[in-house]
Amino acid sequence: MLLPEINSLNLDIFTVGDYKLCCYVNCLVLGVPTYKNSNLCFAADSYLKISEHHFLRYFNFFDTTLQLTEQFKPEGKNIETALIAQSDLVNNCVTYIFTENEQNQAKIVINCKFTVKVTFSFDFEELYRFFVGFRNLCFKVYCYPIFVEEFLFYALRKTDITFFQKKLDEFLVLPFSYSSQQTLENKDYFYLQTILARHQTLLCKIKCSFDCLPDEVDI
Prior knowledge:
Helix content: 25-40%
Shape: globular
Low-confidence stretches: none
Strand content: 15-25%
Number of strands: 10
Distance between the termini: 37 Å
Oligomer: single chain
């Protein structure tokens, strides 16, 4: 499988160490871009593509990896674990490995195995930055109107998890003070209810991560 060159305009961007995490329609892209024709571009087979339908797997990946400290268990080191497997083909998947650098400091390596193997190496601070960028950008791939993003991120920060666990007919769109509510019409309320139900699992994952892991942390 060939990952093509990306030269389209990104929707948003987040810095992760030496890498850039860019948001596009339906996917996030991690890599080292070049600047071409007044735009950031990724060469073919040079990046990690995170498709929208894999978002929950990446949340599970971060849940697993960020529970570890620098003194991670010896039995878990240097064992390759599938993050995204494509029909269980070894040469067409994404894996990760816990290992150490030359200074015996813990790091995690992500291998993107497609036509060309691309490797990404993080210490735990960089991995946390990757997680924060992923969490903050992943919902933007849907390209909903700005009032939807404003409402949802307000709700993610101001409500508790039970708000996102309701059934569709139980959703009360504005059970809290929302600064822009006077600008919303009845059709907007219904639209918000539909989106809350459509993305309920993903929004619950994002909300849990906001509650458990802050944007900034001393690692």
